[in-house]
Amino acid sequence: MTNEELIRVSQEVLTQNYGRFPIVLVKGEGCQVWDVEGKEYLDFVAGIGVCNLGHCYPKVVQAIREQAEKLLHVSNLYHIEPQIQLARILVEHSFADRVFFCNSGTEANEAAIKLARKYSQDKFGSGRHEIISLLKSFHGRTLGALAATGQEKFHKGFEPLLPGFKFVPQDDISAMEAAISASTCAVLVEPIQAEGGVNLPAENYLRELKRLCERGKILLIYDEVQVGMGRTGKLFAYEHYGAPPDILTMAKGLAGGVPIGAMLATEKVAQSFTPGTHAATFGGNPLATAAGVAALRATLEDGVLENCRKVSSHFLQRLQVLKNKYSFVKEVRGKGLMIGLELAREGKSVVQECLQRGFLINCTNETVLRFIPPLIITTKEIDRLVQALDEILATWK
Ligand SMILES: Cc1ncc(COP(=O)(O)O)c(C=O)c1O
C-alpha cells in the first residue's frame, strides 16, 4: 500500500487527535527511518526523545526477543526479575533509593503527585496538598498531570481541572517564594523545559529552588520524562545543576522504544507508598523492563553519553553559524542533544520542507525548531541537516 492509501484508512478509523505528517513509517535502523514507499529519512525527532539509542538498537532487540520467549506478563502480585534489575541500576546511578514503574510519562507524574500528597498527609496531616509548577511546563495529558501543566492551550475544553495547582515563571525565585504557602506539599519542574520551547534554567535556579523547598519542608519533584536517559549528555539532567530532587519521573527513552514510565524517590518519601496505595497492571512488566535493562546498560556502557556531549557542541556551533547568517534566527540554545533554534516567525513550513528533503524535525511552541536526534547521531549526519536548513532558510525573505 502507499502512504496515501494507508492515510485514507487512518482518517476513517482513528480518532483525529494528532496533527500527523503525511507519511507512514514502517522501518527504522540507527538514525534512519523509512516510509511504506521506501523513502529514507534522517531522524532528528527520535520518537520525541524516545529512541535515544536510535531505532532497533541491537542489544535492546535481542533482550526483547529473549524475554518474549520466556515470559511476557504476569502481575505485580509477584516479583519480576528484570523489574528488580532495572530498579537496581536506576538506584545505583541516581539520588534515589526506590523505584515505581508504570507505562508513560504522564502516569509517572500522576504517581509523583499522589506520592507527594500522601507523604505530606502522613507527615503533616491534611490540608497540605498544593503543588506549584512552572508556566510553559508540560507534564502530560491525564487529568492530574494536565492540571500541573502550565500552558492554558492544553487545558481548554477539559475543565474543571483538578484543584491544587499553581504556576509561576521559570527562573523567578521570588515568585516561587511568594506562591509557597502552608498548603504547599511540592514543587514540580522540568529541569529543562522541552515542549515549552527548550528553556534552560538559569545556572543557580534549581539550587535556589532546592534551598527554598528544604526550608519549607516541601518536596522537590523533577520531571525528566524528556530530558532524562542521557538526552543532555549526563544520565539525568539534574546532574548538571547540583540539586538532586526528592522525586523524579522518567519515561520515553528508558526502554529503548518500548512503553515504560518510572518514578524514582528517596527512601524517606517512598515510605508513603504502602501496599495498596498505588498500582499499575502493566507497570514494570517483564518485556518493558527487560528492554529497559538493555537500554540503560547500553546508555551507560556503549559510549552513548560521550557521543552525545561530543556532537552536541558541534551541532550548537553549526546552528550558531545559521543564527549569525539569518536575522530571523533569534536564538540557538540547548544542552546535549536537546536543542532549540528559535525563529522570529512560525517554523511549520521549515519542518515540512525538511520532510520533503528526507529529514524529520519538529517545531514546538510555534517558533522553536527542536532537534532531539538519537544520541548516537554523527557529526556528518548533523552536517547534512544543517546544510538542508541553510538552503531552506536562504529561501526566506
Ligand atoms: C516533560 C514531559 N513530561 C511528561 C510527558 C508526558 O509523557 P507521555 O506522553 O509518555 O505521557 C512529556 C511528553 O512529551 C514530557 O515531555
| Largest sheet: number of strands, sense, barrel closure | 7 strands, mixed
Q: Which radius of gyration do the C-alpha atoms yield?
A: 21 Å
Structural class of the secondary elements? Answer: alpha/beta
Mean pLDDT: 98
Q: What are the secondary-structure elements, in order, as H or E? A: HEEEHHHEHEHHEHEHEEEHHHEEHEEEH
Strand numbers in spatial order across the main sheet: 4-10-9-8-7-5-6
Helix content: 25-40%
Q: What's the end-to-end separation, in Å?
A: 39 Å
Strand content: 15-25%
If you had to describe this structure to a student in words, what would you say it looks like?
The longest helix has 22 residues, at 304-325. Helices cover 39% and strands 17% of the residues. A hairpin with a 3-residue loop joins strand 14 and strand 15. By secondary structure, the chain is an alpha/beta fold. The protein has a 7-stranded mixed β-sheet, with helices on both faces. The chain is globular, with a radius of gyration of 21 Å. The protein is built from 14 helices and 15 strands. It has helices at residues 3-13, 46-49, 58-70, 81-92, 105-124, 143-148, 152-155, 173-179, 205-216, 267-270, 286-301, 304-325, 348-356, 379-394, and strands spanning 25-29, 32-35, 40-43, 98-102, 130-134, 165-168, 184-189, 219-223, 247-250, 261-265, 329-335, 338-343, 359-360, 362-364, 368-371. Helix 12 (304-325) packs parallel to helix 14. Bound molecules: pyridoxal-5'-phosphate (PLP). Pyridoxal-5'-phosphate binds next to helix 5. Pyridoxal-5'-phosphate (PLP) binds at residues 48, 104-106, 109, 138-140, 190, 194-195, 223, 225-226, 251.
